[in-house]
C-alpha cells in the first residue's frame, strides 16, 4: 500500500525527535509525527501506524495552509506503510504513551527484570515519568509448594486482585507496561490480567531503550500509588494451560506445542531444571525472533508468514511454553496481536515439566 501524503525533513532539519521524520495530516489538520525516514524511505512503526494510518488514508482533503507553508521547504516522497497488526491496540508507541502521561485512567508499569540483577535499582535511576515498578517474579507469582517446584506460577484470583489494587490497577484502568527486553517481562503482566478478565493492557513497543533514544524525559526515584484501586478478578478459560492439558496435547497432537526457549534449552544442553530437554512434539521458535535488533516488532505480514511457515497459522490451536511462562507469554501476546485466537500459555512451563520425573521428555532435536 502506498501513500503520497508524507513529507520528509532533509539533512540538517530538526523536526520532532530528529531529522527524517514522517508527518501525516489527519482529518483535524494536525501534523502528526508517526515514524522515521531512513535512506529516503519512510516506514511507520506498528504502534504509530495503528493510531493514525486509517485516519490519514481516509482524509483526502488538501492540508491546511499552515501545514502547507511549513512543508514548503521539505521534499515530498512516496511512503511505504508497513502492515498493521490485527490487534494493534496491544502495542502502544512511545508517542502514545507520552501523550497519556498524567492521565489518571492510565497506569504505567515498569516491568524490567533480570535474574542476575535487581532491576529495581535501574528503575530508581530513571524510568518513564509516572511509572511504578513491578517485578513479575515477586509480585505476580504464587508461593512455591512445599516440594519447591513449580515456582513462579500465576497467583490465584484473590491474591492477584490484592496485588492489582496495591498497584492502583482497577477494573477500568488502562495498563501500559514496558521493560528493556522487547516487552517479554511486561507480557507476563498482560497474561495475568488476561487470565483474570482484564483486557485493558498494552505493551510499549521498543521499551525503555526507544524512549531514551528519542530523547524523552526520565523520572528518578520511586513513584508511589496515591490510593489503592478495586480490581475484580473474573477468571477466564482459554488463557493458560495446565500440566494435564499439555500432557493430553502430547498424546493427541492437538493443540500444537510451541517452545520459545533457546536452542540449548530445547535440546537439553542447557539444563535449568532437574532434567533438560523439551516436551515431546514441541516445535522450537525463539521468542526473540519476533523482534528487530532494536527491540521493536517485525512487520506484521512478515511475522504472520514466519509463524505460519512454522505451522502456527491463524487457525492453529497453540500452547506456548518456556522456562517460567514469561517468554511464552510474550509469544502469546504477539500471536494474539496478529489475530490468532486459539493460543494459551502453559503456566508451569519447563519449571514444572522438567522437575516432574513422571512426565515424558525428549533431548536433542526431535
Describe the structure in your own words:
It is a single chain. The chain has helices spanning 46-58, 65-71, 94-99, 120-125, 136-139, 157-166, 184-195, 207-213, 243-252, 263-267, 300-309, 327-337, 349-353; strands spanning 2-8, 21-25, 31-38, 41-44, 75-80, 91-92, 106-110, 132-133, 174-178, 201-204, 240-241, 256-259, 283-284, 318-321, 343-346. By secondary structure, it is α/β, with parallel strands linked by helices. It has three domains: 2-80, no CATH class; 88-213, Rhodanese-like domain (Oxidized Rhodanese, domain 1), CATH 3.40.250; 240-353, 3-Layer(aba) Sandwich (Oxidized Rhodanese, domain 1), CATH 3.40.250.10. The longest helix is centred in the N-terminal third of the chain and has 13 residues, at 46-58. The radius of gyration is 22 Å and the shape is globular. The two termini are 40 Å apart. Residues 1-82 have low confidence and may be disordered.
